[in-house]
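Thread: quick sanity check before group meeting

JM: Hey all, I'm pulling together slides for Thursday and realized we never actually wrote out the predicted structure for the chain we discussed last week. Dropping the sequence here so it's in one place. If anyone has concerns about the input, flag it before I start.
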Amino acid sequence: MREADIFPAYRGEMEYVCLGCQARYPIDELHYTCPSCRGVFLLEDKQSGELGRTSGQGWRNIFDLRAGTKNPTLRGIFRFYELMAPVLAEDAIVYLGEGNTPITRSSTALERLVGQPMAFKNDGQNPSASFKDRGMACAFSYLKHLVAKHEWEHVITICASTGDTSAAAALYAAYVGDPLKSVVLLPQGKVTAQQLSQPLGSGARVLEIPGVFDDCMKVVEHLADHYRVALLNSKNAWRILGQESYAFEVAQWYDWDMSGKVVFVPIGNAGNITAIMSGFLKLLRLNIIDRLPRIIGVQSEHADPVFRYYAQDKDARRYEAVAVRPSVAQAAMIGNPVSFPRVAYLAEQYEALGGFGSFHVVQVSEQGIIESMLLANRHGHIACTQGGECLAGLFKAKEMGLMDAKELAILDATAHALKFAGFQDMYFRNAFPAEYGIVPDQALANVPRLVIAQDARATLSESAFTVQAAENVVGILGLDKKIA
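JM (edit): ok, ran it. Output follows.
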């Protein structure tokens, strides 16, 4: 048996650590916020010092060797087992093909237009077509472990969502099966048809709440506080652990060399940028990488509380939630991110180790988001609106003088473009309600054109219909005849 196929022997000792009062709790129960102060948790491995016994090169060799394994428990995010949730037995790990998503270098034409070397990490190529599968793989593996330990016979998993979280939660719950049952709460009328179809197709119980994501989140938090449910939003610290794999994969893709790299991340509920910072910090502290990449978080001007916080003078910063307005970056339309305390905590560490300028937050317009998505996809990407948000963020960063001309921008396309096809269609048809603040450029519209009238089928023979349709195509395209 090859080394890559052997499940790791290392086991850590993990506990919840409150970022508010620093209280610590064991992991043998479901915890989301601190019972003492209501602060949010991070998970820490008390034995992580043992990992320092292996050199940075040793860890690089181990992770690179595992990249070729056929062992399903190590093929996905748990290739980095020791860095994430090293308390799980092999039979607890859930793998649906998540992780290992490609980083696609942009075409020469797109880089010339943008004026920057750039690439997209296409997390829409995860099983449920979004990055949320990374966190769910870890959260459901932990749940599977906990259910077996306590012999629970009935567990409701629940989440608030703008689409991607519910799709991932429902998919993984359906795969694991009894005793887990999936329930998702969605803001009524504010989830795309494509995203709504996913939890319904996976058999989840879908409940709608009038309002926005933040309203759904308040309901879910109340339920988690007073009833035994498994909360699957990013308050769940196990989800954050799973999403750290994004950082590990980026580093591995570039052979562990993060010099000259700038990672752009849409902020949304702030779980992903939290996880990515935490992941890179772990790699640096174990000497797996020798420097941190710069990180630039991006927020729409329609939902920008984290941008507003960091736009203030450092000594006078005060965090306030904001009322959101409709956004095409639907997954980022969150006015009070649950993980903001984690962002503030980790950003301070990140800047301390990465130096001034290693962490920024920029604000972009709705017009910029949708048109950046179209620009990316017209050059061969499959970016969602959040991927468009990152490209708009790159334009903003360049405008602000935050980018060196030779730095490589790595943009997070969090979901597949098809999840947001409705917004593309609204742009092409000039059908955005006024509250989006988007005025389409009709030169960018791309709509089908009818080649031949439907009634021609009744008046022409089959062969004549074919010839007439072909001649009409020739006229539309201006084709030249073959030279004999």
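AS: nice. The chain has a mean pLDDT of 94. The first strand starts at residue 14 and ends at 18.
JM: adding both to the slides.
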